[in-house]
Each structure stands twice: as C-alpha cells, then as structure tokens.
Design brief:
The chain contains 6 helices and no strands. It is mainly α. InterPro entries: Spectrin/alpha-actinin, Spectrin_repeat.
C-alpha cells in the first residue's frame, strides 16, 4: 500500500510539473506595454517560488522511496527508477524557470534603465532650449554676447554617453520584440527633438561667434580711433598753447 501511495505521489508530481511547464514556459508572451511586461515579471517570480517550494515535497518523496527500497527492494527498485525521472524533470524545470525569470528581470531592468537615460537627456534638452532662448534679444554689448555664448557652449559640451546608452538599450529591446512600438515612438520623438534643438543651438552658436568677432573688431577700431584722436587733440592743444599760426601747422592739423 505504501508503494502504491508513493507511486501515486510521483505521478501527481510529474503531472504538476507538466502543467507548470505548459503554463510558465510554453506560452507565447507578447510584451506590448510596460504593464504586460511588469505583470509577466511578477508572474515568473511567483512561478519560481512555487516551483522551489516543491523541493521539500520532492525531498520527502526521495527519502520515503529510499526507506521503502531498503525494506522492500523489489518495490523500491521500480519506484527508484520513476523517482530518477521525476528528479531529473524537476531539476530541469527549476533551471528553466530560473532562467526565464532572470531573463524577464533583466528585460525589465533594461526598460527602467532606458527610461532613466531618456529622462536625463530630456532634461538636458530642456536646459539647452532655455539657453538658446536666452541668446535672443541680447543687448548689443560685448560682455552680454560673450556670456551668452559661453553659457550656450557649456551646455553643448554635454557628452554623448547617455545617447549611446539610449540607442543600445532601445535596440536591444526592439530586437527582442519587447515594447517595440512604444520604444520606437519614444526614440523617434526624442531623436527628432534632439536633432532640431542641437542644430538650432549650433546655428545660434555660430551666429554669436560671428557677432562677437564683429563687435571685437569694431571695438578695436574704435579704440585705435580714440587713441589717434587723443594724440591729435594733444597736438592741437600744444599748437594752440604755443600760439602757432594755422598756416605753420602740418596739413593734417590744419
């Protein structure tokens, strides 16, 4: 009777493993939304816990069959053979579910990481847009134009590392058919805004550099003119002080 009960327990265990394999490993999942992906991750975590909890039951079965085999070798031998098959299938099921759970957790982590980098770069784009707007309607003063240019250039020196991460993470998920529509839409919107703002900022940078160069050249010309006028003023004052007749002065002084 004990052998019959153990044989029944082995059959029930094998049936449960078959159902678990069908439910957790053979279903085709499509992750088209973050909610679906998150639910799949949580489901696989529960599956892993459920399978690992059966380890106690498997151990009890193993111990009972060993004890029976020691007492009744004829009955125990057949059960031991069935037990080995169950143990092998159980270990395989555990490994596959662990692997799938780990994969889904990695995918979810990849999605969260992508959102993180998108948030960082979106904040940078907002900052860049503000700096570009600050270059509008500047007072026509050398210091103001120079400060605006340096401020814009400091933002443009932003490293490309985050954008590289966004591209690689997004492509990894899309290649796996995971959240591909949502990610493609997000990347398209981000890339379009990045191209637009970066081109506008570089164009404004070039305009400011040219304007600054013109202002510096004009400022230099005015400074030279002012120095020449000062020198001329000193000469004229000297002529007047010495009461020199105008016709005795050099032509330029006349």
């Amino acid at each position: 009777e004990k052998a019959v009960n153990l044989k029944k327990d082995l059959a029930e265990m094998q049936e449960w493993m078959t159902q678990a394999e069908e439910e957790y490993l053979e279903k085709d999942f499509e992750y088209k939304s973050p909610e679906e992906l998150e639910n799949a991750v949580e489901e696989m975590k529960r599956a892993k816990e459920d399978v690992l909890q059966k380890e106690v039951r498997v151990k009890i079965l193993k111990d009972n069959i060993k004890m029976l085999a020691a007492k009744v070798p004829s009955s125990g031998q057949d059960l031991s053979t069935e037990l080995n098959v169950v143990l092998e299938n159980y270990q395989l099921l555990c490994n596959r579910i662990r692997g799938k759970c780990h994969t889904l957790e990695e995918v979810w982590s990849c999605w969260i990481e992508l959102l993180h980098y998108l948030d960082l770069e979106t904040a940078w784009l907002h900052n860049l847009e503000e700096r570009v707007q600050m270059t509008e309607n500047l007072p026509d003063k050398l210091d103001a134009v120079n400060d605006a240019l340096e401020s814009l250039e400091s933002v443009l020196r932003h490293p490309a590392d985050n954008r590289t991460q966004i591209r690689e993470l997004g492509q990894t998920l899309i290649d796996g058919g995971i959240l591909d529509d949502i990610i493609s839409e997000k990347l398209e919107a981000f890339n379009a805004r990045y191209e637009e703002l970066s081109h506008l900022a570089v164009s404004r940078q070039i305009t400011l550099e040219q304007h600054l160069q013109t202002m510096r050249e004009t400022d230099h010309m005015l400074q030279v003119l002012q120095e020449n006028l000062g020198e001329l003023d000193r000469q004229l004052t000297s002529y007047l002080t010495d009461r020199i007749d105008a016709f005795q002065m050099p032509q330029e002084a006349q």
